[in-house]
Amino acid sequence: MSEILYHSPLAHAAYHDLLRSLRDEAIGDLRGTPTRVTRNGRIYWYDSFRVGSEVRKRYIGEDSPELAARMAQARDARAPAEQRRKDRARLVRLLRAEGFLGLDPTTGSLMAALAAAGVFRLGGTVVGTHAFRLYEGELNLRLGFDQTAQTDDLDIASFERLSLVLEDMASPPVQQVLGDFDFAPTPSLEPGKAWRWRQTAGNALVEFLTPAFGEEGLRDLPALAVQAQALRHLNYLIADPIPAAIPYRSGVLVQVPRPERFAIHKLIVAERRRADDRLKSEKDRQQAAFLITALAQDRPDDLADALADARARGPRWRERIEASLARMPAVAKTLAAL
């Protein structure tokens, strides 16, 4: 199991300053009046503004004390936008100097474009290896080369039901953003539908995923105007995601799964695809082992709750977790000691 190394307290503080600034910027960029809308017993906030004779709504987020406080804070006088951008760029430079991971220009630009279009504001959650890399800031972990080999795949997951209820859409459309970066849809088994987009001049791949509540297959994500592959166990992974800052240019705000859920989910998927893709299965177990070791030291209660939640979801969940742990005795011992 890899030794856990950490960034300096200065780097940890700089990351959270960058994240806080990006979140404040997202809330403060209002064109009209914050409006509460209740749907299915849940409260959502929208930025309501008029375009000609039409009133439009731009989704801000689900109601919470933290969101209310951020909107109140956004009404106060702040530094000019250019100064805020320069301050964030300075934090990014500090993080890079401290050894934080970066993104290649193509991936960084694509992430920034997807964020600007509203993909993550509208519920899109980065999963897979890109999410694992972003736990560097959340947990202040110093990741090794063997853990951070750049992947050409970008996986984005979202709840189909959330996409239906928001009544807001990415702008410009996600398909247009991908087209601007020379991505073309990869044909699927369902004619006229695509959930994978491959870059025409390279190996980069963008995949859209959604939880399966029943049969796996393709589902529509209306807020993103794309199709997504429905997968079991994904509802557990992307429930209650957290914001994350990508240290690229002046920072990019995205969201990722909670690290404890990511770790336990990796135990499940490692066993599920062990027969089909042993290399990916081994990578899943390595990422799970690293995060579980770190979380057992830093957030043991969160890790214990995530494990109990997964085990309570049924015998198949428990079987897959235990099958993975049978191959990971040190990790099994760590979890048993929680």
From TrEMBL:
The family database entries (Pfam families) matched by this protein are listed as: DUF6788, NTP_transf_8
Question: In terms of domain of life, where is this protein from?
Answer: Bacteria
What the entry lists under InterPro entries is as follows: DUF6788, NTP_transf_8, NTP_transf_8_dom
- For the DUF6788 domain, which residue ranges apply? 19-68
Residue ranges spanning the membrane: these are none
Q: Which residues form the Nucleotidyltransferase-like domain?
A: 107-310
- The name on file for this protein is Nucleotidyltransferase
- What is the organism field in this record? Paracoccus amoyensis
